[in-house]
Amino acid sequence: MAADPPSDGIESAPFSRRSRQALPGLRPFSEKTAFRPWPGPPSPAAASSSSLKPPGLRSPSRRQPRSPLLRPASSTSDLKAASKRPPPPPPVRPSSRAPSPANVRVSPLVHPIPDSTIGSSLEHEPSSEPVSLPAKSSPALRRPPPPPPPLAQDHPATKHPAVSSLIKQFGNGVTPPPPIPATKPAVPAGRPFQVGATAFHVPSEPVFSRRPRQSFPPEIESSASFPKKNPASNSTPYLTVSPEGHDPFDDVHSDSEVVHPFSQPSPPPPLPSRKLLGNGHTSIHTRESSSESSSPASSASSSRTSSESDVNVIKPPQSSPHPPSSPRPPLAPPPRPPPRHKASLQTANNGHSSPASTSTGSLAAPPLPARKGVTPPAEDQVSRQLPSRHQSMAEQETELSESQAAQPDRKVFGSFLPPPTRTIALGDKLPPARHNQSGSSSESEDEDDSKIKVEQLPDASRASRRPPVVDCLNYSEFDIHVPAYTGFVAVSGHIVAVASHHHLRIYDLSVSGAPIWNLDSKDSFNTKVKDFKITALEFRPTSNYKDRGNFLWLGTKDGHLMEVDVRTGTVTAVRPAIHAHTVTHMFRHGQSMISMDDTGKVLVFTPPEGVELDLRSQQPRVVRIAEKQEFAKLLGGQLWTSTRDPNGGGTVPGTSRGPYVRVYDVFTPGAVGRSVLPTEHLGAVTAGTVLASRPGHVYLGHEGGHISIWSFGDTEGAPPQCVEVVKVAASDVISLEGVNDRLWAGSRKGLISAYDVTSKPWTVTNCWEAHEKLPVLRIVVDTWSMEKLDRLVVYSVGRDERLRFWDGLLGIDWIEQELLKRETEFSTFRDMTVLIVSWNVDSAKPDALTGTPENVNFLTDVLTSVDPPPDVIAFGMQELIDLESRKMAAKTVLLGGKNKAADGTISQKVTTSYKKWFDRLVLAVRCAMPADSPYTVIHTENLVGLFTCVFVKNTEKTRLKHVALTTVKRGMGGRYGNKGGIISRFVVDDTSVCFINCHLAAGQRHVRQRNADVQAIVEDNTLLAEAGPSGEPVAYVNGGDGSMVLDHEIVFINGDMNYRIDQRREAVIAAVKAGDLEHLVIHDQLRKEMKFNRAFRLRTFSEGPLMFAPTYKYDRRSDEYDTSEKARVPAWCDRVLWRSLAPERVQQLHYRRWEPNVSDHRPISAAFKITVKQVNHELRAKVKAETLELWQAVERERLSAALQHYIDQQMI
To answer: Where along the chain do its domains lie?
Structure first.
């Protein structure tokens, strides 16, 4: 007995399409609603009465009984032969014999359409018996049925349109007659039917939005097929679903024109059962099954003709009369059709359809091309362009073929949905092509570097980290408490006023560290105004020198203004409720005072010339500005205000260029404020200032780390213009102040940075921690200090609720630079030799150093390349393990660096590769070096492929101190160590030496990523933090304590830096063969960055001449550059650079490459002679005292210049 075929019919079989999908307008009706099944097939007895009677035809005079099972149609696209018995070949009838219509043998897949000859006597038999889908079926149902024999050319069945379309598509050499137009049955609206436990109802107003055909739930697909008919029964029922008017599944727009099977009230022939496939071509679906994925069986390979549905099938046996079809890629899912016109809806409701209504006019349904095996996401279907409603068949087929050709194959993941696809609309830019990742991390595919934004911040490689403290006050400010956000501070020389809520405390640091006056507003300050809250402070200007900085103005929450004499602690003047709302800001400008409240009311107090400002008698001038300004400051004689952008501070591109900045000339009556915008999307304005070195410019600090520069005063009456935006920090700029010729900025991490804005790009001259890793809320210059203290004092207030004083002239840095110039007067020097070896081994083991003499003798040759033997040997290796191996990388991450031995040797919990290389290096040093000068390992560390091992002579080990080691991860945003660096340092005598072994970002065009990796390594202030300060600042430079790389006097950096040569591969190889290396050095990315990029962190480093050929990339065990399909451009990826505070103290002895060929890189080595110092501290103290005397003269000169600047700005 032949098995039933799978459940996919060909598209041109109308009843197969009918049985595979429910109408779009069906809805659940009732579980007990009756329906009309198809009359079943003939009984076995009737079927055996004539041996020549085709199984697909039955006598028109015999009615068929009903059956409780639903049987869908079948097609040749459902035939599967994988792991199943092929059916026996059918007997072939000679074409010369034309059998009679009663004896012809046709395929059970063919649905004869009733016509005038055979369909007039066929009738439907109604039934109210519900039909249920079985849960499981027998395995025998999965065997395909025998293929049908070919029909004779003159057989009447071959002349039927539906049969002729099948024969035309599947062979038999018969030319089909022209198709006959289909007609629609007259079915009343509201016909219910039921499948299983779910009932459906055809509504009176059909919905013509077609839903995508989807699969049954996985449990039905895997185990449930439509079973064979019950052996006890001799018939199989078929479901009748009658549409109203227009059938949404007719084939008027499909690949072949067929006659609708329901044009006559006649039952179809019996069909063998079909297995359900989860590919969108099944029978009536329930709503719950729409989200289920397809069966794994639906992912088989496909071989099909052009008219078959796009499902995965197996070729039929060669004995089949149908010719084998060529493979064809899966077709794309069709678009959702547009809604029907009202005319079509009205026609559908008439109950009767005319033949004209089923023609290929504008009211016909759009085509239903073949679907893929798995239903795509809904967004993919909606996003595709819909076909035109009035296209011809040829135009539609052309569009479908083009869309199908553009749709790539989507991998089927078992029973899971495939990943979403991306639809590119007409005219959109195509996404970049995907590249397969290579085996080595150094060979990662390139990506357009311009699309990856890597911020280039100002260069801080020479910044001093020493805090510029002042010592002009008798008592420290450390005990002064300033409440964060609610406290206000005003400083005038040694007088400090702190207000918070109802309290006002006045300090005189020349007398005591405790407040000399402690006033409370609840005691009314001896005035009639009681219980007020202070919200603003500022000292009033005076023409009398003795009174300068002694009269303090207070602004309150209720709008009062008061004046207090800080010498006596008494209130000298009161203007109650002069502001109707909270006073938020107070400014001093020349002899005038300006107060401002939160409603935009500004009061300008300007006394007549030669008269002191009196709060009680002076009548202010009122100026109106915008209300609720978050930032306000008097800059260049104009009031600059700003509020956040209503669209979110300008952070959303396309909404605004940034926060609104408004500038008001409050000293000119009748002047109108100007609104300006920055040139870029910036955050809210947090602070503003002016600089003496750049007059006519205003600097505004923004959230996000930007500083915008505005020019004003160039043209009379012209508004300020934003001329530049500079990114200075990764976090927000909280506070900003121009101090002398430096721009001071406070960050959220408690750091204050001083920028030299005269260079392009800016450079950081000082950067120190001011407020213990908490935000620096305010930075203000005390202009009174230049007259009262002979200092330029700057005070800052932080979130730590502390007040700190700083030297605005940065005198301590000037003294340090002078001491360095005279270092030879108090220090002694000696020489040491250092050997550095760098090699990317590409996961090669030391056992691979065999074969050629270059491999065998490599370690011995490199160790003996320095004469006399070096005092320090530093091995830096990269890719010691296979970075593509997740197991090895995970083991290194979990075990590497743990439980190091006390003597600095390697941990016992690392992978075998690190242990083998460590043992091999120790053995090589022991064998190559003289026996009377042994070496000791002081540093070993590994980081996911990186490996550092540092040897020191035993005679030098006793001079070492402050030995420390740390790592920096740069892969995956700093979370993974496949890229990064290992940093080791020690102090020998009074000189600090640092070694860096690094592996930077790969890729021909990833220069910015490599620069960012370098910046993170050399500027991260968390490096070596566990070592703590050395206690001897003479060993470090720039006021550092050894916690940063650039704190050290001598720094070496080596490794696979991955900087490439910007030339074609053929040109590079030709230059290497010709020995023209100087031409290649010009195009080396590292050299270009060091020469032209002023923000490059290795700009202050040095490198020896490149006299050897590029070391990357070779074929293993050969001397040929990369011959793979990727054909990498040769490059000097492996480098050794150095930096010294005094350049003459580092001298390079050699810089060369070696020739072992077990890796795709060649190793390099560099030898140096360094000079270390030993300081005589007594002589140093004497020289420092002489330097301090010189500074006093320089300080007076700088104070005079700063005083004149603040007078010009009318701040004094």
So the answer is: 456-465+655-821+1177-1211, 486-625, 827-893+907-1175
